[in-house]
Design goal:
Layout (H helix, E strand, L loop, with lengths): L2 H31 L3 H4 L3 H11 L15 H5 L4 H20 L6 H21 L21 H13 L3 H4 L22
Length: about 190
């Protein structure tokens, strides 16, 4: 191989590496940008309904100053699960921007029960993975909890329940038409 061919191969390699770094950096920048509360509430029906409701909960304002944002509860931290969730979210953007199915607060409210049930099912299927980023039975001091809470957590551990089995409506209002009697968790 002559010197010109070596330089050409080296040049292509350098360009490929630089291009790879730029593309990977751009991908991660976009991933981070779409993983912010500001991005989540950029749709007015999200800001006017779920975000507004969140502001009245312990997850928004509390004595410790720890605040849960939209991505904390709705986007997994592990990379592969995060990518899968982002792909699913592209479908949500499709229904908002392309079909207009949920592009107003009124349309959102019409579909709210089904949307909530989808989120609850996902949380159930993942053993409330996002809740457990902050809340973990092993880290709880049941002696410092109110007796009702401690007993419920003991029962949840005993029956292998997950957070969402008992805590629907903890960060957002329960949808109209939701019947908690239909939602009693099954024992272990």
């Amino acid at each position: 191989m002559n010197n010109g061919a070596k330089h050409g191969t080296f040049g292509v390699l350098v360009v490929g590496i630089v291009l790879g770094i730029v593309l990977w950096g751009g991908f991660n920048w976009t991933l981070a940008l779409t993983n912010t509360e500001q991005f989540c509430i950029s749709c007015h029906e999200m800001e006017n309904t779920p975000y507004e409701e969140l502001q009245d909960t312990i997850h928004f304002t509390n004595r410790t100053g720890v605040r849960a944002t939209c991505p904390d509860c709705h986007v997994p931290r592990p990379w592969i699960h995060k990518i899968i969730r982002k792909i699913q979210a592209s479908n949500e953007l499709y229904h908002h921007f392309i079909t207009g199915e949920v592009d107003t607060t009124e349309k959102f409210e019409e579909k709210r029960l089904r949307l909530a049930q989808n989120v609850w099912k996902a949380m159930k299927d993942t053993d409330s993975r996002e809740c457990r980023n902050c809340h973990d039975f092993d880290s709880m001091d049941f002696g410092r909890q109110e007796s009702r809470s401690a007993e419920a957590h003991d029962e949840a551990i005993e029956n292998n329940w997950t957070c969402i089995d008992c805590h629907k409506g903890i960060a957002h209002s329960l949808p109209e038409g939701y019947d908690p009697a239909e939602d009693i968790p099954e024992e272990g």
